[in-house]
Amino acid sequence: MSTNGIELQDREFFAAIEGRREPNASVAQVLPCYRALHALESSAAAAR
Fold this sequence. Notes:
Elements: H1 5-18, H2 27-47
């Protein structure tokens, strides 16, 4: 088995498609985190 991160991510993505499930690290899972990080960044920029 490869330890290449991109290859592992691709393998997981295709396995999720075949299994009809949401892949690990999907956009839907990380988008709320990015929204929170953006809000924190905006608050920090406003405080400067």
